[in-house]
# Entry
Amino acid sequence: AQSVAQPEDQVNVAEGNPLTVKCTYSVSGNPYLFWYVQYPNRGLQFLLKYITGDNLVKGSYGFEAEFNKSQTSFHLKKPSALVSDSALYFCAVRDGFNKFYFGSGTKLNVKP
Amino acid sequence: GAVVSQHPSWVICKSGTSVKIECRSLDFQATTMFWYRQFPKQSLMLMATSNEGSKATYEQGVEKDKFLINHASLTLSTLTVTSAHPEDSSFYICSASVSYYNEQFFGPGTRLTVL
# Structure
């Protein structure tokens, strides 16, 4: 069975500091991993995905994520956080039937 | 490209009435559409998968008679919440895919409040 865990309900970071939002996964077969961001009362916006290739994936708005097979992790990172990055972030894994399994979400608070 | 819209963006209805939510792929043909439900401060829960021209596949625990899904064309899927009750109040999000194995693009969501 596929599953995704986001161990932190909330992450607080000061503007300008680097941020990390953690995600670990459990899949059978090759993992297809995604990060999405959700602003209040809005749908999900795609940030980046890992299918194959380089372990470091670069995405939208300066975000990147590192795929680590040995640790089964796919942490989202950004070198310098912006207040406008404050939102809810979801990690997801897609199975072979194109079904998405979402993590519980991590609320990112970036303080000025 | 790859824009998905939902209508309405929010709706308030009385208990016992039915509500229809539309999901449209604006610039591509979506063979497959997915419907999710999101409770406050919780993750998305897949409700059903709909393929154009065929019956939807519902996830375990989702009442197919309660949540009617129709995918009549390659650009439109509808979710009808029948005889809505306050516990059906939620944020409903759809996604669309060119095919079963392609990228999913998400709609902006519909906030349903049942009084």
User: Anything to note?
Assistant: The two ends of chain B are 37 Å apart (CA to CA). The mean pLDDT of chain B is 90.
